[in-house]
Amino acid sequence: MKYIFILYFLTINLCLADEKPIHSYPNGATKAVIFSYDDGVIQDRKLVELFNQYHVVGTFNLNSGLFGKKLPWMEAFIGKQGEYINLDEIKSLYKGHEIASHSYSHPGFAGLNEAELRFQLSRDQQILAPINGSPLKSFAYPLGSYDNAAMQLVKQAGLTNARTTNDTHNFELPKNYMEWNPTVHHEKAMPLVKQYIALKSEKLTVMMIWEYAWEFDKKTQNNNWDYAEKLIRTVSNKNDIWYVSAAEYIQFLESIKQ
């Protein structure tokens, strides 16, 4: 009897080891990578080229009230004045990527009155949705600033997810879609990228890398365009990773709940 029990135990465990995860992403993977970049500055042009070259997907969070405007303060960081992209280039520039909301004029949302919050959300969507060809689904809090009231109004505006700037440094799924904490700022991403590539897990995981494309013009150790390309190249073209936008990712998570 003892040997029969041992044989049964080993058989069950071997079967379990061969089982596939209860859920996998659409390409059969259990890992997913999302790139989320804010503001819509002219450096997005170069970043999009890199994303396209390495076949990854970006979610670009845009401020429609600032298109074409200058950013004088940026000179202190990159040695030249910054600039937002132009309205007429959005559709072609971000083709194949997600156009998302970042508010109309980029105020911090924490403590902002309800009327202004509604305006910032609705006006940005009114301008961007026709260019996108469909309602926007993703949002990133300007300056990483938000509170409970802001989260409620973002949800009421029809947006399905809202990214913060609070890095988790882990690969867990988002628990609150209106307070989606990313994995890591791109400046500190490389060690976690290597860890994620090596990860073997039967449960679903996700890595979200975020920041601003203009930072690659800083020309510092982990904020330069060589680093940007190396980071994207390192994480790209892996058969066991799903490269996806924030909106499509949340849509998938919702679908498997049904």
Automatic annotation (TrEMBL):
Q: Would the keyword Cell division be found if you checked this record's keyword annotation?
A: no
Q: Domain NodB homology spans what residues?
A: 31-244
InterPro entries in the record: Glyco_hydro/deAcase_b/a-brl (IPR011330), NODB_dom (IPR002509), Polysacch_Deacetylase (IPR051398)
Q: Which domain of life is it from?
A: Bacteria
Q: Which PROSITE patterns match?
A: NODB
**Keyword terms:** Signal
Q: PANTHER family annotated for this entry?
A: CHITOOLIGOSACCHARIDE DEACETYLASE, PTHR34216
- List the protein's name: Polysaccharide deacetylase family protein
| Species | Shewanella phaeophyticola
